[in-house]
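Lab notebook, bench 4. The sequencing result for the construct came back, and we need a structural model before the next group meeting so we can plan mutations. Quick request posted to the team channel:

Model the 3D structure of this chain.
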Amino acid sequence: MNEKDSLLHEKSKVTLSSQSQAEALLDVTTLPKNKATKALDSSVIDAQWAQMSQDWQSQPIIKTDINRLLKQTKQRTVWAKSLLVIDIMATLAMLFAATYMWLSDSKDHATIIYLAGGGILSIIFVIFATKARLSAWKINCGSPDKAIEHAIVGCQSSISYIKLIKLSCFIIGPFANWYVFAVTEQVEKSPIVGLAILNILLVSIWLVSQHFYIKRQKELKQLNDVLTK
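Done. Here's the predicted structure in token form:
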């Protein structure tokens, strides 16, 4: 083989090698096809947004009528002052009656002891009741901006007063039962009817007080929830 044929042979080899490399580089048919990006489904987004809006709207919203709350607090303050006046008058009446009977040399010693003891216990009751009430009345200025705070303090004052009434039922109960028994013994009658009436009255007072106690506790919780919103 001469030199010319050798050069042609080498040239053909280079050409074939270049063509095979080009074909390898340009053959993209075996590559995976790109998938088109999936478009967001707007209906799904709208449905999710509608559900979120519905959940938000379904949340409980506590509404407070400030004018109604102020009126209620004012009315309860009037009632509280009236009850305190009645307590003071009842205390003075018992002490006056006990003193009068003692000075007049009455032989009804059971009644004197009952009135005097009841008057002393009533003084203690009035002191604690006045303390509980005044703590609420001092800060109650009737301002709409402080309506909820004043209602909370007034509710707490009512709860304290109700607790005193419930406690007094247990304290005055044995004392009152003794008095009924002593009086019926003096007149030589059976104490059963008197004791039954007395204890039914005491239980009724306690149950009514418990009813208002539960009611005020619920109101206090609602007011605190409104204040913390």
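DSSP finds six helices and no strands in the chain.
Will bring this to the meeting.
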